[in-house]
Structures are given as C-alpha cells and as structure tokens.
C-alpha cells in the first residue's frame, strides 16, 4: 500500500487510538514531567478518543471530511499538557493534507513536518526531551521517510526514528534521568504510530472499549516535590471577535505571568489554552472578556501528585477505596472524595472481575473497600474479595453511585476497617436515592404499562413512579420519602441527556415544596439517567 484514502486514514487513526489505550496505564506510570501526577496516558487517550467520536459521525468519508474530524475532535477532546500538544500535532498534520483526495508517502512525511511546526508554535517555552522532540525527529527525517517504497516500510522507519527519540529523552531532561524513565508523551506518540503500523500490516479489527491496561514499567525513582503552581487550568473559548496579533501577544504574556507550562493557540474562532497556575479564577475572568466558555477543566495537581507518589512509593495506608463509575464527570466527583482507583462501568458496561482485581491490586493499602455501584457488579466484586490474598477486601454492596458518594462523605480514612465497613453500611441505610430515566419504548414494568418517553423513577433502587410530566413525577417520588422532613441536603448529578428546562423545573420544585433542603448540583455526564439524586 502506497496511498491512503479518507476511509483508510480514518481507520488508521482509530487503530492508533486503540494501541495507545492498551498502554494508557504504562504511560500514566511514566509521567514525571512537567508534573508527576500520573495522567499523561489518560489525557492523550481522551484526546484521541474524542477524535474517534468525531470520525464515527462522518457520513461521507472523503479525505477532507476525515481530516476535519481529526482536527476538530482532537481540539475539543484535548486534556492536559500532553493532550493539548497532541491536538496541535494533529492540527499541523491535517493542515498539510488539505484539498487532497489521497495521501501518499511524501504527503505523510510532509505532514510530520507541518505537525512539528504547529506544535512548537503553540508552546510558549518548548522543552526538549518531550513529545515535541519525538515529532521533531520525524520532521528532521523527511528525506529518509519520503524515500520509502510503501507504507509498510514507511512506518517501520517511523517506529525506528521514534524509538530513538524516546530513548534520547532522558539525556535531554534531567528530571527523566533522575526518575529512570523515558518521557511519557513521547512514548505515547510512539504507541500511536505503532497502531498506525499495525493497521497497515493488516490488523484492521478495532476495539476502543478498553477499560484497564497492564503497567509493564520497571521501578521508577519517583521523587516527591513541592509544586510552584497548584492548578492545571484548561479553557476552550469561542471568541466574540477576531483576535489581532497584538491581542494574541498580550494574552500569551498574561499567561506567562500567571504560571508555567503554557500552551496557547487560536484555531478558527476558538481559543485553546493550558496553564499551570495558582489563580485559575483570574485566568477564566481574563478570557471571559474575549469570548464565551465552551469547556473548563481545573485539576489540583498537588493532590494528584501526592496520590501518585503514595501509590508508587509510600508505605501502605490503612484503608483504600475502589469505586465503579459510569462517566468521567462522576469519576471526578469520586476522585475529589478521595477514591483511590476508578473502574469505568455501569448499567450497560459491567467491568469484569479481572478489571476490579487490577484496580484493587494497584491501591497501596492494607484494606481495600470496593463500591460496585450497580447490582450487576456486586458478584464480580465479591469474587475479587475471595481471590485476593495479600490484602483485606471489603465489598460495600452499593447499587448506585449516590450511595457511594454518601458513604465517601462519611469516610474516616484511619478508622479500623471493621468499623469503617459498618459506617459505610449504616450510611447507605440512612439516605434516600432517586434515579430518573426515560422509557425508550412501550413496555410493562412490574405490572405497570409504560409508554415511550415517560419518566421512570427509581427510589432506593425500586421502581416507584412513571409519568410524562416531570414535575408530577418529582412530586409523587418525594412524597414517598418517609423521613423527608429530617433531610438537609439534596445532591443533583446531571447527566448528558438532561435539559435546562428539566433542571429549572427541579430547582423550582425543591425551592417551592422543600425549601429546607439545600441543593448541590454537579455535572456527572452519565448516559441513560438524566438525573441521579441523593437526599440526606
């Protein structure tokens, strides 16, 4: 094969994503620069997966449609320093392929050169020994790559060049050499290219539903450090007007004053920025003067770093937590509540015993509590408890994430495991949980005739109400909570399919009927259930 059409480039990209996902945990473990917070693999994976989502929505697989999906998808999915730079690598890559109907060997080599130029241009202070070095090595070998007779030998040469770049990174960055690792971002780019090569060599089956991966990493000399800047802050802003050169320079200078690890660029009318800072609010306020926020992501790197260090190096703590989560938004909520390991899963995506066991074994604790958060996962969790020999495993039989959140609020990390287990179980008995979904078809449920698009409400995991009117469904449900007058807080976790109208109805309903309840709202992003509610 010496030419690629749009469909083939699409599948090539998706195979690269699959291969990165297989090594995500390894890349996380290698992450020591710029901040050792163990998320480079996750951030690069999120960036690539969003590109795949855009590709899956492409109807006419012309080359232009495919490269636009890759360009826009990776932009919108970019997370973290590594993910943002990766999105710019693909921006430059796709820029070089505009208006072509097919991609040949020389086109692909030229795309690497364009990728290098755009990625270096987006980083205020480029650092060698990183993913930037890896793409630079490819750009500098343009002539060698252009001479290859077909894509099979082309990618063999690409992997040879990237392998050399990855191995050189510790020689360029003292932090890597001190830790005894290669750069995580550069290694991630290698795995993406390895996936490209696998596709060219006939491995055309693609699986992007990879939940956990092995971590074949030698011992890392992870050194705890004091972070100068605490918050990793990322914004995507749609600008009100065209940004002039002077405005762009002023914004870059502002970000440099606010922190470090600055990545900043304009793409059409979209501003994307990444900065490590101690004042994320000031950054947000500044860019609100330029346009409207499309995405905001703020991570506490100090907390991530301390968690990562304790997992890699520290003495085992007394109690650790593993929880199953149906979405990234709920995962963030659980992480903020000090859950050690998240396993993705839920109603239609039950993790296996092996998935849970990997998570339990990665927690550096003498006792580990598993929160299945779904009745279908409890048995798998119990099998982990029965087969784990080197630590005590307790299964807290939570049937939804609301129960887990309530239990984690009352978590006492240094409590004896037996007493903590009782605290968790007592908490679940004392709260009320509500899960609201919509019927996707006419059906019967527990003798009730259900019509398509009706609201279905489950109170404490039992089906209790169905109605087309959201407010009536809420009224009937809250009337069934026996001790509602003794409750104080209602926590609302908003899913992907929730509408602003429904959210407004819910808030007005609580304010008018149950004004003694304080409302806390979180973006969960879960599918199937627009609203998950905890009343405590």
Describe the structure.
There is one protein chain. The protein has helices at 6-22, 24-30, 40-56, 63-77, 80-95, 105-122, 131-140, 142-146, 151-172, 174-179, 184-200, 245-258, 280-288, 301-312, 328-336, 353-362, 378-387, 401-409, 417-430, 470-479, 500-513; strands at residues 3-4, 103-104, 231-239, 259-267, 270-277, 291-300, 317-325, 341-344, 365-371, 392-395, 432-438, 443-445, 448-450, 455-459, 462-467, 489-494, 518-523, 531-535. With 536 residues, it is of the alpha+beta class. It folds into four domains: 3-200, DhaL domain (Serine Threonine Protein Phosphatase 5, Tetratricopeptide repeat, Alpha Horseshoe), CATH 1.25.40; 231-300, Alpha-Beta Plaits (2-Layer Sandwich); 315-430, Rossmann fold; 432-535, Hypothetical Protein Tm841, Chain: A,domain 3 (2-Layer Sandwich). The strands form five sheets. A six-stranded mixed beta sheet has the order 15-14-11-18-16-17, with helices on both faces. A hairpin with a 2-residue loop joins strand 4 (259-267) and strand 5 (270-277). 46% of the residues are buried.
Short key terms for the protein model shown above:
Rossmann fold; Alpha-Beta Plaits; alpha+beta; four-stranded antiparallel beta sheet; Serine Threonine Protein Phosphatase 5, Tetratricopeptide repeat; single chain; 21 helices
In short:
Helices cover 49% and strands 20% of the residues. It has 536 residues and is an alpha+beta fold.
